[in-house]
User: Fold these one by one.
Assistant:
Number 1:
Amino acid sequence: MKYLNLGCGYRYHPDWVNIDFVSTGPGVLAHDLRKGIPFPDNHFDVVYHSHVLEHFPKEEAAGFLRECYRVLKPGGILRVAVPDLEQIVREYLRHLEAAWQGDRGAMHNYEWIMLEMYDQTVRNEPGGEMAKYLCQEHLPNEEYVYKRIGEEGRAIRRAFLTHHKTKERAGSKQAEQEHPPLWRRFLSGVKRLIRNAFFKTESIYSPENHDAYRIGKFRLSGEVHYWMYDRYSLKKLLEQSGFRKVQLKSPFDSDIPGWSTFELEVRDGIVFKPDSLFMEAYKPR
Ligand SMILES: C[S@@+](CC[C@H](N)C(=O)[O-])C[C@H]1O[C@@H](n2cnc3c(N)ncnc32)[C@H](O)[C@@H]1O
C-alpha cells in the first residue's frame, strides 16, 4: 500500500510519504503544495491531509483536491480533516447567549471561540491574537481551551510562554529596534536615499512597502486560514472534485487499512485535534 500525508507538519509516519513546506523530520519531503503534488497519476492508495485544506484560498482548494484525485489510484481513499466551522459556530452561539445573560465562564469561552473563528483567518503576524491569549499568565478557561484544541494546546501554550519570556528578555533590544536612536534613523534615511536614487521604481525598502511585504510574506507562509468548511460544504467540494462515497468519520473510524496503527489522529485514546471535521471519499474505479 502506498500512503501520502500532505502538509504533515510534525505528524508523520515512516510508512507514509510525508510532505510539508519544509522538511520537519527524517524523510519528510520539502515541497510547496500550491505547485501541485510531485507524483505521477494513479500512484497512491491513500491520500491524507489534516488541517491543510483551510490554508488554501477558496478558489485554489478545488485545484488542490483535484491534485489529490489525480495521484490516487482508482478505488483509492482520500481522508481530510479540517477545523469544523459548524462546531465553532454552535459554540459561538452558545457562549454568546450565556455571556449576554451575564455568565462569567461563558464570557471567557466566547472570547476564545471568537479567536478560533476569526483570528486564525485575519492575523498578520505569527500566532496572532490567539498566541496573546495563550500567553496570559493565568488562563481563565484553560480546560475549555484544551477541550477545544486538544491536549496539544498545552504544548502550544508552553512553547508560546517560553517564546514570550525570551522575547521579554530581549525587550530592550526590540525597543531599540522599534524606536531607534537618532543616529540610526539618520543612517537609515541616507541608505533609503541611496537606494531610491538607484531603484527609481517603487522600492520594498520604503517603510510602507516594507510593511506590505512583511504581511504578504507572512500570509503566504501557510499559517493563516483562508477558508473554513462544514460537513455540507466539504462534501460538496469533494464531489465537485470527482470523489464519490463521501462519508463523515470520527478520528477512531476509517476505511484506511491499518489506520489506528499510524496514530496520526489519536494516541492512547487521546484525539490530537478534537475541533476537527473528518471526512473520507473514494476515487471511483
Ligand atoms: C495546521 S498544520 C497541520 C499539521 C499536521 N497535518 C497536523 O494535523 O497536525 C498545517 C501544515 O500544512 C503545511 N502547509 C500549509 N500550506 C502548505 C503548502 N502550500 N505546501 C506545503 N505545506 C503546507 C504547513 O506548513 C503546516 O505544517
Number 2:
Amino acid sequence: MTDFAGLRAVVTGGASGIGLAAASLLASRGAQVVVFDLKPDVPEPLSGIAADVSDDNSVRDAVAAAALQLGGIDIVVNNAGIGAQGNVTANDDDEWHRVLDVNVVGIARVTRAALPHLRKSDAAAIVNTCSIAATAGLPNRALYSASKGAVLALTMAMAADHVREGIRVNCVNPGTADTPWVGRLLDVAADPAAERAALEARQPMGRLVSADEVAQAIAYLASPLSGSTTGTAVAVDGGMQNLRIPAAR
Ligand SMILES: NC(=O)c1ccc[n+]([C@@H]2O[C@H](COP(=O)([O-])OP(=O)(O)OC[C@H]3O[C@@H](n4cnc5c(N)ncnc54)[C@H](O)[C@@H]3O)[C@@H](O)[C@H]2O)c1
C-alpha cells in the first residue's frame, strides 16, 4: 500500500514503542518520516532530529529543520509521552507540571509550530496518542489519566478549530501496549510476572496490545484515504473500554 507516497510526516517520541512502529509503518507505505525524540536513534529510512517536546525552542528548531529537510509537513503524530503512577496524593506539584508539560503542552507546542506547514498541505492530518486512561477510571493513574483526558479534549477542540482549514485531527486510545514503557513498569514491580498477568487479564482479549496494532490505527487516521474522519478517538485496547464479559472460570 502506498497511500502515503509523496507525504511528509513528523512523529514525536518516534524512537521507541508505538512511535517507532507508527513511523516505520508510515515509511513503509510511502511517507518520508522524521522522528523527534530525546535520543533520536532510528533505523533507515527514518531520520531523527533531537527534540524535547517540553522545550518550545527545541520544538520550533526541530519543526523548522524537519520542514526544510522534507520540503514541508503534511502529517504530525503527537505521540511523545511519559507515565506517572499513584493516586491523586502520590505526586508533588513539580511532577504534575512535568507530566502535563510533556503529555499535553507538548502537543500544543509541536502543533502550533507545525500548523503553518500543515495549512499548505492538501492532505493535512494530526494524530495524537491518547490512552484508555482518558476514558476509563484506572487505579493509581491519577496524574497520567488527567494528562490523557486533556489530550482527548484537546484533540476534539483542535479538530473543531481546524476542520475548515482542511486539517483533520484524531487520536488513538491504546490499552496496555507491549512497549519498552511497559517493560520498565514491570521491571520495578514486586512480582513482574504476576503484574504482567494482571495487565493481560484486564484486557478482554487476555493479552497486551502490540505497538504495531496501535500503529495501524495511527496510519488509518493519518491516511488521505480517511479524508472524512476527524474529531474521533479510535480505541485499540483489546476490548477493555467497551466490553463487559464474565471473568474466566
Ligand atoms: N505502552 C502503553 O501501554 C501505552 C498505553 C496507552 C498510551 N500510551 C501512550 O503511547 C505513547 C508512546 O508510549 P510507548 O509505550 O511507545 O512509550 P516508550 O517509552 O516506548 O516511547 C516513548 C518515546 O517518547 C520519547 N519522549 C519522552 N519524553 C519526550 C520528550 N520530552 N520529548 C521528546 N520525546 C520524548 C521517549 O524518548 C521515547 O522514545 C505515549 O504518549 C503513551 O502515553 C502507551
